[in-house]
Amino acid sequence: MTTPYPFQIEDTDRITQLGGRVLIASEVGTGKSLIALLYAISNPNARPIIIVCPASIKWVWEDQAKRHVGMRAEVLEGPRPESNGGFHHKRQLIVVNYDILHAWLPWLRSLKPQIVILDEAHYLMSRTSRRTKASRLLCKGVPHILAMTGTPITNRPADVWPTLNILRPKLFQSFWTFASEFCNLKRTPWGWDFSGASNLDILHRTLIDKLMIRRRKVDILDQLPEKQRIVLPIDMDAKGRTEYIKAEDDFLGWIGETQPSKLRGASRAEAIVKFGHLKRLAGRRKIPAVMEWIDNFLVSEEKLIVFAIHKKVIRRLAKRYWATCVKVDGSVTGKQRKLAIQKFLTHRDCRLLIGNVKAAGVGWSAKGISNIAFIEFPWTPGDVTQAEG
């Protein structure tokens, strides 16, 4: 079992003091998931536990539950439950993603969950979305609810009301009352405008006193190690898995179908060529999950360096995040490279640097940046160490 830091033990105790219905709104990198799991194991009679999260981090939760607290998780997949009861109904921990929660809701409700963890709770900012309605129904009558997000108010107070309503329905019962006090509610020719903000000091004080735990990394640096390395397992979609398995099981047959011009060369050094092709295939096929993870990260106010290897991967990510990123690969040299790095370091709205490990991993200092993601690894471990440093 993972040994928690003192602040994580304090936060676990604070959840108990707040009655087990809490918004854990600490910054990225402060171990929110470990705190939630610590609280869960401190209440051994509160079972089962349901974790709801984005699809891209379902397997992260499975890994962390096993590694941190020794619990095995049942990860639900597919748009509808199996009718033959093929799941472990006695499993104490179940993980499901927001997009399929509505389909699994009757089955999950039948288990009478005692703890619900809503990860990346900003997914619930819409009062009328299907995922918000399903989450509210799942949590109805559940004694322990932990909602987690790095940024509780992403754009405006109205966005956090659905989460507050789920956590404390009596305290935050009426959206209109909340909007009148905290959203600078206005009547316009086009209808009511909830996009404003008012009385934020009162809202902040209410949240801190009643239901929110907020930690900033700058306040706990003396407790954190110099570096934290976290492996985030992600899954490919069904089509990607099928193609990868075929390439792995029958590599020459796969090459013959997809890239026949390379079949002859591949047959000469099959093992090394196969490994290279599998790396490229995995890199391409996991891009949707990587994008979802980056989207979740960008809800925070921090910056992120993303290292990859292959040009197609870097190009697709740079195209997706063009408005908020710079690209540094072999095609960006000299003055352009310097300007790109300078923009990343100095422009507030430039949140991402997407680069090749070799091209972007040497020759500059990312002072003040504390988050790096390697979405592909190079052949040489030393290149990773250099980029990391």
Can you offer a commentary on this structure?
- With 389 residues, this protein is of the alpha/beta class.
- It is 43% helix and 13% strand.
- The chain is built from 17 helices and 13 strands.
- A 7-stranded parallel sheet has the order 3-4-2-5-6-1-9, sandwiched between helices.
- 33% of the residues are buried.
- The mean pLDDT is 88.
As residue ranges, the low-confidence spans are: none
Helix % is 40-55%
Number of strands: 13
Overall body shape: globular
Helix-strand makeup class = alpha/beta
- The fraction of residues in strands falls at 5-15%
Radius of gyration: 23 Å
Mean pLDDT value:
88
Number of helices: 17
Return the string of H and E elements. HEHEHEEHEHEHHEEHEHHHHHEHEHEHEH
Distance between the termini: 29 Å
What's the arrangement of strands in the largest beta sheet? 3-4-2-5-6-1-9
- Main pleated-sheet profile: 7 strands, parallel
Blueprint of the fold:
Elements (H helix, E strand, L loop, with lengths): L5 H12 L3 E4 L7 H10 L7 E5 L4 H12 L3 E3 L17 E5 L3 H10 L4 E4 L11 H10 L4 E5 L12 H7 L7 H8 L3 E3 L2 E3 L6 H11 L1 E2 L24 H12 L1 H8 L4 H6 L1 H16 L1 H11 L6 E5 L2 H10 L4 E4 L5 H13 L5 E5 H4 L11 E3 L6 H8 L1
Parallel strand pairs: 1-6, 1-9, 2-4, 2-5, 3-4, 5-6, 10-12, 10-13, 11-12
Antiparallel strand pairs: 7-8
Helix pairs in contact: 1-2, 2-3, 4-5, 9-10, 9-12
Compact overview of the structure:
The chain is of the alpha/beta class and 389 residues long. Helix content is 43%, strand content 13%.
